[in-house]
Amino acid sequence: MEPLNALVSVSNFMLxxxxxxxxxxxxxxxGITLIFSILRFAHFAHGDTMALGTAAVIGGTLFxxxxxxxxxxxxxxxxxxxxxxxxxxxxxxxxxRLVYRYYRRVKAKPMIFxxxxxxxxFVTNGVTRLFMxxxxxxxxxxxxxxxxxREFREFTGLAEGLALRSSQAITIIVALIAMGxxxxxxxxxRAGKSMRAYSDNEDLALLSGINPERVVTITWVITAILLVLxxxxxxxxxxxxxxxxxxxxxxxxxxxxxxxxxxxxxxxxGAYVVAFAELGITFAWRRVLSYLAPEGMEPSSMMQxxxxxxxxxxxxxxxxIVLLFRPTxxxxxxxx
Amino acid sequence: xSLTARDLGLFAGMFAVLAMVAMFQSPQLAITILNMxxxxxxxxxxxxxxxxxxxxxxxxxxxxxAVGGLxxxxxxxxxxxxxxxxxxxGILLGLMLGVATILAAILVYKRLAPSKLRGLAxxxxxxxxxxxxxxxxxxxxxxxxxxxxAAEGFLGGAGLPVxxxxxxxxxxxxxxxxxxxxxxxxxxxxxxxxxxxxxxxxVIAVLKHERWLAxxxxxxxxxxxxxxxxxxxxxxxxxxxxxxxxxxxxxxxxSVVSGLGYAALFTxxxxxxxxxxxxxxxxxxxxxxxxxRDNEVSARAxxxxxxxxHLMIFILGSAVCGLAGAxxxxxxxxxxPGSYEPLRFTFLIWVMVIVGGSGNNWGAVLGAFxxxxxxxxVEPAGRWLMDTLTAGMNPDSLIRQRMIxxxxxxxxxxxxxxxxxxxxxxxxxxxxxx
Lengths: 336, 434
Prior knowledge:
The structure holds 2 protein chains of 2 kinds.
Chain A: H1 3-39, H2 46-66, H3 77-105, H4 110-132, E1 145-147, H5 149-156, E2 164-165, H6 166-188, H7 190-200, H8 202-207, H9 212-238, H10 242-247, H11 249-259, H12 264-281, H13 286-292, H14 311-325
Antiparallel strand pairs in A: 1-2
Chain B: H1 5-25, H2 27-54, H3 61-76, H4 81-111, H5 116-146, H6 165-184, H7 189-209, H8 211-214, H9 230-233, H10 237-246, H11 250-281, H12 284-294, H13 296-301, H14 306-332, H15 342-356, H16 361-389, H17 398-425
């Protein structure tokens, strides 16, 4: 029985990666939930817009690296984030002007918006691949580890090691700051309050003099910030491949629905639940359990509930369970 | 119901373009485009049933076509007796145990009153069931996959004629659709979209990783074909004399003849489907579906069970997609799970339906022809354009290389722009609903 080693092992292989992945999902799911509560449609272009935002950040990073700018030990990409946000905010606003605004004006059905977002997804997808191709791009630089497995072992004297990659630490910290600022914005500022009012009751908000176009503009800008952050952090952590971003769509939607569409807090909680479930169910528990089991009772199999290839199945199962038993989500989002 | 002169003109124009491809590019290319267009037209018909008749948004077409493709392997491939002897029973038993576990969990849920105890009981049933299932299933799967892994390593199929796989593919897709629809219909409209997105990813994941089923990413090739292969046609005397008359090479003639055989089969299926769909759409049932689509609340007030009708049409539409998936695999003679991409198999079909005219069966068919033609032709056209644009540059220049490479992505953008433009300026499509 070595609970300490078990804890270290589970942290190293599951808890820390899940925390980082959950933070990335949370930022994405927040964007989905915001668009849903203000513009009232499921934004299918989210994953690909995230990819384009990351591509912009990578472009900025390359430019900065060529100029010799660096904030070692932090990755240069962090410096390029504002540039990416600027590009993406402009991109989102232009898309809104060209595509979505017309459907708002004619009060089209939500499904038409979804369809339009599909078209935007296609175009965004093409633009991203135009710049980046389909292969993997790694753009992480600076110090790779905060501490490595060996340093941890030498420091603590435990048999199991624990490594903390800088990208993981940065992800968690940046995500926490972003969420804090977002909640401050929504709850304390005038613009944020007008957003919440508009989301709660459109007619009443119009009556009290809130300009809907302004609310929509702010929403797109905030979404742009969130998705550039999410995309960049995901890319720093796992490398940039456009198709992976498209595949993030399902876990992000699952997170937003699980938390309750339209509820920001729900999106965050949902994202962590999805991340921990995905990694926990596809994690091989053998090593951890062999530390916890009494002498001679160590498990012989991998103790893995599902192969890693089926992590989508986990997300999907969560989605199905939510839809069956509590379609409003944990935090009672808007349904129908 | 009937086509107007304008619609006929559009179809005639489309076939004229295909004829030009046959004349100026190559007859084989024209036949290939024609066959894939026919298959896409069937997929588009299925989607049009869901979207055009009922307003259901299915983003998982890829999954349903892939399930249909799986049916071809399971029906037409010869069985692998060694694999069955090694673990066939274990796999069947394992699958049954898995289903029994889920049924038991549902039974517990239904029988016990809501309480903490019920939650625990369900959890216990699932955990015990999972362990028992994996104990039976795991070793059997390993044993099957170990049988001659280079060529087989799977259970094989039933060894039946390949044509039978088409209806079976439709039934498979219908089964998956029933599961998805049961869960997500009756809730917000977006939920169906998200649920179908999920199931299609899962279907592909299962096809890729369950090697005992259809060899996963190792692909099943050389599946029996419903039409003679060009290689078998070449030695036939009438093919050779036909080649002489046309002045083509024998291999070219053989592949054109084989392709035309598929085209005839596919046209037959498509004609039958259109006939059925048009009859249905113009029956009381079709009017009810459209009434539900246009105003769910009043349809409900008239006593229509909206959710049930939605489930029905969702299953029907998905079955048609499954049929098309089976036809596609039997034309290629191979199942390659790695080639299923959502952009190609889901979103492209959507563009076809929207461009053609949602709610109109003929529109969906025309949309499929137009979009598939563009999909095939835009890439070479883009490359030619880039080549011409950059002709003055140094051939080794990085910018030139980049621009020529980018032609491959042009078609994604073209499709997206086409979708957006049609949706905005001609939302009723090329052949509007009437």
